[in-house]
Amino acid sequence: MEKQPQIELKRSLGFGSALSIVIGTIIGSGIFFKQGSVLDSAGSSTMAILAWVLGGIITLTAGLTIAEIGSQMPYTGGLYVYIENLYGRIWGFLAGWMQIIVYGPAIIASVAGFMSILMANLFGLSSAWRIPLAVITILAIGAMNMLENRVGAAFSVITTIAKMIPIAAIIIFGLFWGHQHAFGQTLSQVHQSAGNFGVAILATLFGYDGWILIANLGGEMKNPQKLLPKAIILGISAVLLIYTLITIGVLRFLPVQTIHRLGENTTAYLAVKAFGTIGGKLLSIGIIISMMGTINGKMLTFPRIVYAMAKRRDIPFSRALSYLTPKGKSPVVATLFIILLATIMMLFFDPDHLSDLCVFTVYCFYILAFFGIFILRKTNEAPRPFSTPLYPWIPIIAIAGGIFVLISEIINDPAGVMLFAGVVVIGLPVFWIVKKLDQSAND
């Protein structure tokens, strides 16, 4: 029987696409929907702004650390590949399992859930329409990503450019036409019960999360050793500046009592109040496009992890999940798998709850990866394509920030933590069963 030629992913992504995927994947629902929860936990406008800044700094130190590791392992799979190369096959499997079963579907479901709130408000629909709207959006974006990677990358570029319009509008209007003092407003009456400054930073980290997903496309970049670190660092730095300015703009325009009262509807209210009914609708459309770009970036990257694991025969149904279309080289079955799990998550979890839990889950493995930079410095004597500046302080800050995330979420939601951690641990018997069946088939 004639052997079929092996189909591989295309190395077609350049720096512009990589940078837009980083920025587009990060800037989604968090900055627009977390203003109320961050403010409630921080207790004042000054501390809320500081929470967004510190969340960005923690994320930047994480990005600088991963940039050095990723430049030495420029392969499809990202965190899954890093953990396996650093700690062995089982730990690598758990990192991949966590992303495809828990983190990936949860974060897609969370962003889609937040987006559907704006869509329902925009079209004057009841809350019963939120889940159907979210599911339809995920299906449409997923279908687009079943084409070759250039289509999804092009959509990321377009939506990243488009999302800058509502962002610029909020920043400019808030800074120049706002009449509130961005600093010094206090919300002491809810500070006692809403959380604390640690919980506020934890909420911002959902807004910053997603930057590492570009590493999943390492095998599809033209020059990943150089492009990956540059895209991660410039992308996170740009988002840190944008988030700080948006927060100041919102606090300049709306008093903290109003933000507290509106919660997740703060951005929609601000849009109408600042730009009128029509202008508010246009701004809401821009924010919805922003969220679609975020979902697209995640839908582009997470199936690549499924593909990488299936190609290694690490998961059930590997033959189907590793299938690539002959023409577009797209992992269509893996994409359908992520769509299915994200839809299930949407049916059973609140988007705000999902956002916190997915951050906790991924940071468990981020910390392992951060420690990996010390391992590589000792074991890898080859020249590094990129070196983390201010070593070892930057990785130490990244590790400390990761530990802070874990402790905060365990204290804040122990039941949710146990549920998601349990799903990750279930991966171990799955791995052993798959490997035993695979070995039996080869004997």
From TrEMBL:
One Pfam family named in its UniProt record: AA_permease_2
Organism ancestry: Bacteria, Bacillati, Bacillota, Bacilli, Lactobacillales
Keywords: Kinase, Membrane, Serine/threonine-protein kinase, Transferase, Transmembrane, Transmembrane helix
Single GO MF annotation: L-amino acid transmembrane transporter activity
Cellular compartment(s): Membrane
Membrane-crossing segments per the record: 12-33, 45-69, 90-123, 129-147, 154-177, 197-219, 231-254, 274-295, 331-348, 354-376, 388-411, 417-434
Keyword match Membrane: yes
InterPro entries the record matches: AA/rel_permease1, AminoAcid_Transporter
UniProt name for this protein: Serine/threonine protein kinase
Assigned GO CC terms: membrane
The keyword ATP-binding belongs to this UniProt entry's keyword annotation: no
Predominant cellular place of this UniProt entry's protein: membrane
Superkingdom: Bacteria
Membrane topology: Multi-pass membrane protein
